[in-house]
Amino acid sequence: MIFYRYLAWKCKHLRLSFRRLVEELEGIRVALVKEKSGGKVEVVVEEMDAKQARLFSLLDLGKFMLMWIKR
Questions:
Q1: Contact at 8 Å (CB) between 40 and 34?
Q2: To which H or E segment does residue 69 belong?
Q3: What is the signed CA dihedral for 48, 58, 51, 41, rounded to 10 degrees?
């Protein structure tokens, strides 16, 4: 719960309710895509709406994706 409160504080200028903030974050989808020929696997973020894109950028979620990939 503390983590969600921190997110709400960090995103307060977007003026989203707590519930709406969680819904927007839940809507950000990540997929693993594998090429048939090379077998290379990539992490891809699916298309987001404007609010989700602002949240993704504001919270620097791309950095966390890179940390997850390197594991």
A1: yes
A2: helix 61-70
A3: 10
Q: Could you report the per-residue pLDDT of 7-61, keeping only the tens digit for each?
A: 889 998 889 898 999 999 999 998 888 888 877 888 889 999 999 999 999 998 8
Encoded tokens for 49: 């709406």
Q: Is 28 left (phi over 0), alpha (psi -120 to 50) or beta?
A: beta
Indicate the angle between helix axes 61-70 and 50-58, nearest 10 degrees: 70
pLDDT of residue 4: 80
Alpha carbons 46 and 40: distance in angstroms, whole number = 18
